[in-house]
Write a structure and sequence with these properties.
By secondary structure, the protein is an all-alpha fold. It is about 55% helix and about 5% strand. It has helices at about 35-45, 45-55, 60-75, 80-85, 95-110, 115-140, 155-165, 175-190, 195-205, 210-220, 230-240, 245-255, 275-290, 295-310, 315, 325-335, 340-365; strands at about 20-25, 30, 35. It has a three-stranded antiparallel β-sheet. Helix 1 packs antiparallel against helix 8. The longest helix has 27 residues, at about 115-140. It binds carboxymethyl coenzyme *A. One of its GO terms (biological process) is tricarboxylic acid cycle. Pfam families: Citrate_synt (PF00285). InterPro entries: Citrate_synth-like_lrg_a-sub, Citrate_synth-like_sm_a-sub, Citrate_synthase, Citrate_synthase_AS, Citrate_synthase_bac-typ, Citrate_synthase_sf, Citrate_synthase_typ-I.
């Protein structure tokens, strides 16, 4: 069987060759297809960034127009899916619903095809429909009528409109809100071989359909150590706020090795410096709240917590800095997204990355099924004992 290297959590194991996303955790660098994320956040749209990740280069005008048309054409969802949503127990977590729904898409749209064109349609369908489904689940949770996608709106505007437009109060699309959502999604669009992406690749390696692979990614993202951290941050900030605003106490708790609590929104497997995404989202957060004239006490608590943590020797020694989730929840709150949908927002942003990584693995002529080994620590051979003798 040969020599097996043990690497729990795959800290030092490269699982694939990839040309999609570059990260330098020491210097705090993140680039999609070579382009710094800062430039994309400043100049690109989410749609264009999705195209870049999936196709390897920025689209020209004709390609972008065609991509927009394809997204628009695929943005409706089968009305039978509505029944599916309505039958989930009311208290279901939106991430559980989303994962199940994406898996169910395989049954609603069974023809996946094998040609490049057919695979492109499946990828576009996912990008277009998951956004509609997320807004739909929100409307159903509120008991409101669904709002359909509109061809005259951008990808981000459409989502906001489907979420918040009502017959009694038409949704006013504000450019600073669209900008915040656009940047939030661009920053989340890919992050090389993180837990959910590795799940997409691993499940995909068994040659399941794209929907099933993405559904596995959504399930992994749900976890509080991964995408679920944006929800955990707001819950933690709310706790600190309602219990008197003692930030130092939260920092002390996070350092206590007898307490499983860790400061959500801090630390990262790869970044040993400030997460470049956190820098951008922090700025967006300040600008959004200022332009909307919102004064959120949770932002003050977040700022104070950050200041205390960054000066604390434990956080310094452990290279613990804010990650993307630390300020993103405050942005989502200002936009009006309910807390239990924060991780769904992360999933919508990560979709292009998952799709691009799945596509890259399927294009690999040496694509192998993922099958790690282990170091066995159980019993050596022992005999079966009949029930009466145990
Ligand atoms: N608060 C307190 N201590 C921490 C934290 C934290 N947030 N993060 C790591 N540590 C400590 C940890 O206890 C360990 O200490 P020691 O070496 O003394 O035992 C050391 O730092 C290294 O931690 P680790 O668990 O070995 O690091 P990891 O790479 O396995 O975990 C992490 C990375 C992100 C899961 C972890 O930092 C964490 O749990 N952070 C809080 C959850 C969070 O914000 N997750 C979002 C990550 S960014 C969004 C995404 O891409 O998913």
């Amino acid at each position: 069987t040969g020599f097996i290297t043990l690497d729990p959590g795959y800290v030092n194991t490269g699982s694939c060759l990839s040309a999609i996303t570059f990260m330098d955790g020491e210097k705090g660098i993140l680039r999609y297809r070579g382009i710094p994320v800062e430039q994309l956040a400043e100049h690109s749209t989410f749609k264009e960034t999705a195209y870049l990740l999936i196709n390897g280069r920025l689209p020209n005008r004709t390609e972008l127009t065609q991509f927009s048309i394809n997204l628009n054409d695929n943005s409706l969802v089968h009305t039978d899916l509505k029944v599916f949503f309505q039958n989930f127990p009311r208290a279901s977590h939106p991430m559980g619903i989303l994962s199940a729904m994406v898996n169910a898409l395989r049954s609603f749209y069974p023809s996946l095809g094998t040609s490049e064109e057919e695979i492109n349609i499946t990828m576009t369908r996912l990008l277009a429909k998951v956004r509609t489904m997320a807004a739909m689940s929100y409307k159903i949770s509120r008991g409101h009528e669904l709002v359909l996608p509109r061809p005259d709106l951008t990808y981000c505007e459409n989502f906001l409109n489907m979420m918040f437009d009502t017959p009694v109060k038409p949704y006013e699309i504000k450019k600073e809100v669209v900008r915040a959502l656009r940047v939030f999604w661009i920053l989340h669009a890919d992050h090389e071989q993180n837990c959910s992406t590795s799940s997409v690749r691993m499940v995909g390696s068994a040659r399941v359909n794209l929907y099933a692979a993405i559904s596995a990614g959504i399930a992994a993202l749900w976890g509080p150590l991964h995408g679920g951290a944006n929800q955990a941050v707001i819950e933690m900030l709310t706790d600190v706020h309602t219990s008197g605003g003692n930030c130092r106490k939260a920092v002390e708790r996070a350092k206590d090795k007898n307490d499983p609590f860790r400061l959500p929104g801090f630390g990262h497997r790869v970044y040993k410096t400030y997460d470049p995404r956190a820098k951008i989202i922090k700025k967006i957060c300040d600008e959004l709240l200022e332009s909307m004239q919102i004064s959120d006490p949770l932002l003050d608590i977040a700022r104070e917590l950050e200041e205390i943590a960054l000066k604390d020797p434990y956080f310094i020694d452990h290279n613990l800095y804010p990650n993307v989730d630390f300020y993103s929840g405050i942005v989502l709150r200002a936009i009006g997204i309910p807390t239990n949908m924060f991780t769904v927002m992360f999933a919508l942003g990560r979709l292009p990355g998952w799709i691009a990584q799945w596509k890259e693995s399927t294009d690999d002529p040496h694509w192998k099924i993922s099958r790690p080994r282990q170091i066995y620590t159980g019993n050596q051979q022992c005999d079966y004992i009949p029930l009466h003798a145990r």
